[in-house]
Design brief:
alpha+beta; Aminopeptidase; 28% helix
Length: 172
Amino acid sequence: MSDPMVIRELATGDSIEHLTELLHRAFAPLGRRGMNYSAVDQSSSETARRISTGLCAVATIDGTIVGTVMVEGGPDLTSDSAYYRLSGVASAHQLGVEPSHQRRGIGSALMRWAESWAVRSGYAEIAVDTAEPATELISFYTRMGYRHIEYAQWYGKRYRSVILSKPLKNEP
């Protein structure tokens, strides 16, 4: 019998190389469709750099990392997105799940973890972005209560991104 899934912060002993390879596998189908997400082929040093700007969580089953998400507090004053530059808006990035574990609720659990982190950190909303042609991901976020905010054209990307956001219920 396998252990239940556990979501925890990335630990010092966790392998950035393994995490990068997981992201490559998770994003490979999107890459094959022509969407050049950073996670398709980013180096381990780029994964580490991106993680260093926020907080990374991983989902584990039987001690093996099977998913990840990274959260950042806002505002991101360097962003090309006007929405990411607003105060009160956190963001989630690099959501990836091992292909063999997809469609089992791991991505949803990781996003709920990200939302909970944002609430605990005092943010009113959490935003994500994804490629406009990735309609299955837009549908995933929409089912989780995210709404379309704006479009963004990130430098070097062959696709236009959709910025989605979800208001958070902050407990008094």
